[in-house]
Design a protein that fits this description.
Length: about 180
């Protein structure tokens, strides 16, 4: 019997995770950039960019899937988070949609374990507390209704972010 929690918080470099899919916080071009996007493209190799060129970009709040190439992960799900503009431009709905769209693609591709970075909280300046609450609530609601993915990893790059996620997950469990 496997009694590990379906939602886990790890501190790691997402490019190192041997999971079914990692999620990339991309931009609408899908052709690479800085932050986690740059790290994923560097680690996956040029073939990733070739596949991305065929995808014709991605809208904010939507997601597209590619192979993982040189990554230990089998797939990469590319989603585009909203740029924080103060909260009055539909940012919360768009960020929640990134998580839902990514999870739907993961399920459709039989992914059992999926790792997410903290979408929009870097270059796109989404406040971390608020973005974390949306991430945890949206993922929790989705997996409560679906069999796949079985396990979600929130892959944090630093201790401070991980602590915010741990508190949000604990609050969820307390109900
Ligand atoms: N593993 C896990 N998390 C990481 C890694 C990594 N290797 N590298 C950074 N992070 P950001 P955004 C964390 O800026 O805000 C790009 O240029 C980072 O600490 O990567 O959605 C794209 O092309 C932060 O918590 O993504 C877009 O133009 C989180 O990942 C734009 O940035 C997200 O930070 C997207 O901005």
């Amino acid at each position: 019997m496997n009694d590990s929690p379906r939602i886990q918080v790890h501190i790691d470099d997402i490019t190192k995770l041997a999971v079914d899919a990692i999620v990339n916080a991309a931009n609408t071009s899908l052709l690479g950039g800085g932050g986690v996007d740059g790290a994923i493209h560097r680690a996956a190799g040029r073939e990733l960019e070739f596949e991305c060129r065929m995808l014709n970009g991605c809208k904010i709040g939507e997601a597209k899937i590619t192979k993982g190439y040189k990554l230990p992960a089998r797939h990469i799900i590319h989603t585009v988070g909203p740029v924080w503009q103060g909260g009055g431009k539909g940012e919360a709905e768009l960020l929640a949609s990134c998580y839902t769209s990514s999870l739907e693609l993961a399920a459709a591709n039989d992914c059992r374990t999926v790792a997410f970075p903290a979408i929009s909280t870097g270059v796109y300046r989404y406040p971390k507390d608020e973005a974390t609450r949306i991430a945890v609530d949206t993922v929790s609601r989705f997996i409560g209704e679906k069999k796949l993915p079985e396990t979600i990893i929130f892959c944090c790059f630093d201790d401070q972010t991980a602590e915010i996620y741990r508190q949000a997950v604990a609050a969820l469990r307390k109900g």
